[in-house]
């Protein structure tokens, strides 16, 4: 199970470590983990570290310091290292001194022969899009196709929401420290690697499931099970115009290992031809026993389609509403708001706008 922490929780957990460790020790600990992850990325992409070329794009503050120290450690492993200082007057002094002492060079632009770029522009306290000078640098990096490893978060991506409202770094890998943040679940971070730096973090209720968690919780049939103990899924989808939606939706229910799948609608012949194990009926009322409904894909938006949606929502069963079902629902949304049974809506941006009366926000 992945555990996610707010920026404030991370800062609070860092405070006692910063107070107890020698000055700069926690940064070097994080930077060593960052350098190790970058070395792995270089090896995966190019076959090694020695002789490879890296460029750190360095902002002010600790995030830039992490990048400079990581580049210093990689210099010691034989990599050639350059750095762009976006704000030279506010560059982390000790990190810069170590970098230049190791033989790192300060440059104005990312060398086109670079094998990898380190994004050390802003960290988890950053807000908003990349500033123009950083945006110009990373636009060139994107054009050159050079992979980027981001320090803590990709710069320009909001640490709390993953939202992007302007130029941002496109990271192949993000290396974060101490604990995962919401951005690592919600934003475009590429692959995410967590480096343990010894933080004592509190319990969190923001969790993310991994494949092993799903596997452990997925119900496995036993000899006493039958189709009803494994769940009967009812599908109200598709039409004469869109039979493919019925086939795809029903197939998904079969693939999810429902104990039994019932289809109700006008595309029954097409569905059964593709999925002979499905039990078909002409309408929801004649479908038989169902334990959860899926309503909407390719259903249409006429009165007959609306009647099928109302039928499902008026039951006490779990319901997933998608596609045309959401368009129908936009007129009388109280049918969902008054439900007590589990109800899942799956809108894209346009469907969300119809339901909510406004487009989704940046997050």
Automatic annotation (TrEMBL):
Note the InterPro entries from the entry: Carbohydrate_kinase_pred_CS, CARKD, Ribokinase-like, YjeF_N_dom, YjeF_N_dom_sf
Q: Which superkingdom heads the taxonomic lineage of this protein's source?
A: Bacteria
Q: Where is the YjeF N-terminal domain?
A: 10-205
Q: Does the keyword ATP-binding apply?
A: yes
Q: Which reaction does it catalyse?
A: (6R)-NADPHX = (6S)-NADPHX; (6S)-NADPHX + ADP = AMP + phosphate + NADPH + H(+); (6R)-NADHX = (6S)-NADHX; (6S)-NADHX + ADP = AMP + phosphate + NADH + H(+)
Care to name a GO molecular-function term for this sequence?
A: ATP binding
Membrane spanning stretches: none
> EC no.?
4.2.1.136, 5.1.99.6
Tell me where in this chain the YjeF C-terminal domain is found: 210-363
Necessary cofactors = K(+)
Tell me if Nucleotide-binding is a UniProt keyword of this record: yes
UniProt keywords (A-Z) are: ATP-binding, Isomerase, Lyase, Metal-binding, Multifunctional enzyme, NAD, NADP, Nucleotide-binding, Potassium
**BP GO annotations:** metabolite repair
Q: Which PANTHER family match?
A: ATP-DEPENDENT (S)-NAD(P)H-HYDRATE DEHYDRATASE, ATP-DEPENDENT (S)-NAD(P)H-HYDRATE DEHYDRATASE FAMILY MEMBER
User: So what does this one do?
Assistant: Bifunctional enzyme that catalyzes the epimerization of the S- and R-forms of NAD(P)HX and the dehydration of the S-form of NAD(P)HX at the expense of ADP, which is converted to AMP. This allows the repair of both epimers of NAD(P)HX, a damaged form of NAD(P)H that is a result of enzymatic or heat-dependent hydration.
User: Sorted alphabetically, which HAMAP family does this protein's record hold?
Assistant: NADHX_epimerase (MF_01966)
Concerning its family, UniProt says:
In the N-terminal section; belongs to the NnrE/AIBP family.
Q: Which NCBIfam families does the annotation name?
A: yjeF_nterm
Name-wise, this protein is Bifunctional NAD(P)H-hydrate repair enzyme Nnr
- The organism is Mycobacterium talmoniae
């Amino acid at each position: 199970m992945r555990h996610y922490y707010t920026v404030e929780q991370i800062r609070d957990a860092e405070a006692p470590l910063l107070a107890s460790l020698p000055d700069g020790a926690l940064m070097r600990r994080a930077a060593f983990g960052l350098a190790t992850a970058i070395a792995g990325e270089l090896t995966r992409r190019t076959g090694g570290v020695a002789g490879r070329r890296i460029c750190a794009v360095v902002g002010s503050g600790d995030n830039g310091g992490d990048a400079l120290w990581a580049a210093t450690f990689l210099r010691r492993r034989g990599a050639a290292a350059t750095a762009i200082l976006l704000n030279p007057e506010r560059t982390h002094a000790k990190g810069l001194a170590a970098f230049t002492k190791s033989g790192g060079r300060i440059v104005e632009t990312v060398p086109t022969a670079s094998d990898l770029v380190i994004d050390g522009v802003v960290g988890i306290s950053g807000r908003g899009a990349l500033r123009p000078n950083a945006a110009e640098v990373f636009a060139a990096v994107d054009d050159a196709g050079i992979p980027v490893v981001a320090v803590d978060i990709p710069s320009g991506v909001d640490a709390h929401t993953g939202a992007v409202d302007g130029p941002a770094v496109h990271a192949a890998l993000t290396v974060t420290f101490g604990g995962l943040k919401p951005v690592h679940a919600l934003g475009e971070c590429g692959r995410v690697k967590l480096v343990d730096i010894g933080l004592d973090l509190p319990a969190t209720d923001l969790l993310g499931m991994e494949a092993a968690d799903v596997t452990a919780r997925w119900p496995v049939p036993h000899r006493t099970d039958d189709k009803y103990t494994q769940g009967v899924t009812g599908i109200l989808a598709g039409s004469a115009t869109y039979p493919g939606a019925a086939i795809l939706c029903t197939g998904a229910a079969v693939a999810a290992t429902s104990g039994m799948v019932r289809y109700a609608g006008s595309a029954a012949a097409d569905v059964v031809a593709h999925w002979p194990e499905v039990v078909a009926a002409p309408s929801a009322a004649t479908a038989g026993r169902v334990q959860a409904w899926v309503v909407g894909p390719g259903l249409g938006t006429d009165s007959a389609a609306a009647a099928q949606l109302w039928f499902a929502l008026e039951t006490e069963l779990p319901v997933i509403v998608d596609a045309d079902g959401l368009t129908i629902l936009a007129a009388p949304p109280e049918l969902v708001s008054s439900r007590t049974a589990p109800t899942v809506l799956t809108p894209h941006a346009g469907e969300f706008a119809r339901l909510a009366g406004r487009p989704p926000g940046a997050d």
